[in-house]
Amino acid sequence: MNIRAVLTGKPKSSFIVQGIEQYGKWLKPYVRIEVRYLPLGGGTGREREKIKEREGRNYLKLLRPDETVVLLHEQGEQYSSLEFAHKLQKWQNIGVKNLSFFLGGPLGFSDELLSREWQKVSLSRMTFTHEMALLILLEQLYRAYCILDNRTYHY
Amino acid sequence: MNIRAVLTGKPKSSFIVQGIEQYGKWLKPYVRIEVRYLPLGGGTGREREKIKEREGRNYLKLLRPDETVVLLHEQGEQYSSLEFAHKLQKWQNIGVKNLSFFLGGPLGFSDELLSREWQKVSLSRMTFTHEMALLILLEQLYRAYCILDNRTYHY
Predict the structure, then answer these.
(1) Boundaries of domain holding A88
(2) Predicted ipTM of the assembly
C-alpha cells in the first residue's frame, strides 16, 4: 500500500521539517509514504472562498482512479491509536493500493472537497496547524505500524 | 499566572527539543512557561509498578500548596482549542497563580497520582508519546493565548 499525505503550503517551522524527515526514516521499513505539498492559492485576504476553491482543485488533479481518500477534518471521526492501526490493516487487507490523507491548508478545505463522499478523520477536538497535523499523522502512522508489528514504541 | 509542564524523562528527538524551544519563544510575550523534566525511575522491565510509583513521588514533591494541577490523560475530558482557551482565561480570572500540567512518562501515571482529585484533560483519543504530548500542549497554549489576544495564528 502506498500512502500519501497531501497538504497545501510547505511547513514553515524547521522543527516540523525535521520531524517529518525523522518519521519518514522510521516508517521506511514498514510502508512507502510520500509527503506532497500543493501551492498556496494566494493571500488570506478578501478572496478567501476563491482561494480555497483554487487550492481544492489541486487536490482533485492528484486523484487516481483507484485512490482511497481520507480527509483530516475536525468534524471527522475520532479513532484511538489502536483503532487507527486496525483501520490501516483493514485497508491493506481489502487491497487498497493508494491511500491518500488530505490535510488542507491554512484556510481549510473547499466546499467541493468537503462534498465528496470521502471518509473524514479527526485527530483531536483541538485545532492544529496543518503542519502540526502532518507531524501528528506521521506519528500515528508510525505508531500504527509498530502496533501491527507488535513492537513497543515509547519515545 | 505561572504555567509549568512537567514530564518524566527528557525528550529524545531533536525535532521535539527544537519545537519546545520554538513555542517557548512564541509564548514568551503572553505567559511564563517552565518545562520541567523529572528523572526516569529505571528500566521498563519487570518492576513496572514500582518504577511508576517512584516516578509519581517526584511529581508530589513538586507540589506547592496553591497549585492547580491538570493531568494529561487519555481518559480525561476533551476540549476544543476555543474551550481550552476559555478554560485558561477562567483560571486566570479566578486568580490561579500556579498552574501545572503533568504529562507523565513512558509508563504513565502512578495510581497515587491518578487517585488525586485533579482535573484530567485529554488531547486526543489517540495515544501520543509524552514528548509529542508536550509539543502539542505547548502548541495549544500558544493557540489559546492567540485566541484570547484576538490574533490570527495560521502556521
Answers:
(1) 2-148
(2) 0.90
